[in-house]
Amino acid sequence: MKHSVLILLSYLLSTATLAAPTHITNVQGYTLSDKEEMVTFTDMVFDGGKVLAIGGGSSLKDTYPDADVIDGKNRILLPGLIDAHGHILGLGETLLAVDVRDIPSAKASAQKVRDYAQKNPDLTWILGGGWNQVLWADNAFPTSEMLDEYIQDRPVWISRVDGHAGWANSKALKIAGVTKDSLDPPGGQIVRDKNGVPTGVLIDNAMNMLVEKIPQDTEQDLQRKLDAAAAHLLSLGITSAHDAGIDYATYQYYIKRSQQLELSMRIYAMIAATDPKLADMLNAGPIHDQYDYLSISSVKVYGDGALGSRGAAMLSAYSDDHENIGLLLTPEKQLKPLFDLIMGNGFQLNIHEIGDRGNRLALDQFEETFSRINGQHLRNRVEHAQVIDVTDIPRFKTLEIIPSMQPTHATSDMNMAKDRIGEARLKGAYAWQTFEEQGSIIPFGSDFPVELANPFFGLHAAVTRQNRNNQPEGGWIKEEAVTVEQAFKGFTYSGAYAAHQENSIGTLSSGKWADFILIDQDIFTINPQDIWKTKVLETWVGGVKRYDSALND
């Protein structure tokens, strides 16, 4: 209760008009102008949570002589960064559950799950995520027996790092009713051994057979996850995140937190098209709170799977699995009525597509739907737009479809992408500069918790096409790298534009919310290979300091 009261007071203070303006001076400030041109400044004045002016120190001091002055100590000031694709409660769950990311083997991963289970004896389900068989020596999927060795009395479910596959112990498979006789659901796969027995790995829609058996989150669970995720994101300089696929319970909870003025960061939430109450949420119309902390005016459609688990829908078979062309999570015949329903209700449609077939089907359906009911003005998006036939890339511009992309996916995938799809198909993969050159707006994100949420990791990957060990030398498919300025735009203005919010956030100018961060190094002048090392010192949202490294170290 004390925490909620403090947040409420902060909210009220941020919108108070009687208090003196705040003048932060002696900074090295960068922002884009309303014409998308880089602007530098040394001073900024804000009041009532919004920017009054940016510029030079003496002029602003004369204009606002009664302002409360904060010495910026010559630190770098940027607009708050926007992650245009993440999973907020998924991140919260990862922060609170067992994380097996970057562990080098299935056995070591199972042992970490065991240790977590032993430390949490009251949990009825052991949940976690982060495994990636591509990083293991044998490159093989894990099995339920590996978990059974350590945990037999409680069900265990560990999601793959991409969220498109999961690993269960035998207890969980039994609860889910997954047996040798179970049929693969449409758009999903039960991985089996040579005798047809489920191995413990479920891919894409097959995961639903188990996930639906996991007890629903209580409101307390939702609170713990949201608060943990928000605190983490704010510490990284993220002031706004696009939440890619929320269910009805989360929809209700977000609205409640918004109405109670208890959101500490901005959330642009996409309704999950798979939710049984989709029609009800669409009928309720778009949700926008008066302080722009919550917006729900888009829907996430699930097109195909992921490249790492060979679920991305491809025009031809995988180079390393000649019998497999991937999965369609939403059958092709269902796209037309779904597009009509969503755009017909005035909601932006954001479709997950990774493979070249998935991307083409999405573009085809956008084109067909536009011809009948219009909808281009909604700024519809393809989430990931990861592997695209080169002939389809210009269609994004023609159809006014926004490619929402995640730079660290390229540097995470470079160790397996060529094996999966071959050299030729890489020409249309992770093609950021190609999209830039044709004039597409590219919002950048991370897809957290699939990738780490740190936006400076994304900025670094976008500019260098390297991992944080600065490998490979010269960058992977270097010609698709973007400039620092282009990457900065992707994490600021473009993210705001993709959410119809460019008039309120994403840049710092008069009348926009005072969302900004102070960081420890100038990303525009340092060696680009060092961008990922950037530390956030302070994060402000709506003129309220939400994070201070000096208080959290």
TrEMBL record:
Q: Where is the Amidohydrolase domain?
A: 68-544
What keywords are annotated for this sequence in UniProt? Answer: Hydrolase, Signal
Q: What Gene Ontology molecular-function terms does this entry list?
A: hydrolase activity, acting on carbon-nitrogen (but not peptide) bonds
Which range is the signal sequence, renumbered to this chain?
A: 1-19
Record's Gene3D superfamilies?
A: 3.10.310.70, Metal-dependent hydrolases, Urease, subunit C, domain 1
User: Would the keyword Hydrolase turn up in this protein's UniProt record?
Assistant: yes
Name this protein carries in UniProt = Predicted metal-dependent amidohydrolase with the TIM-barrel fold
The taxonomic lineage of its organism, from the top, reads: Bacteria, Pseudomonadati, Pseudomonadota, Gammaproteobacteria, Alteromonadales
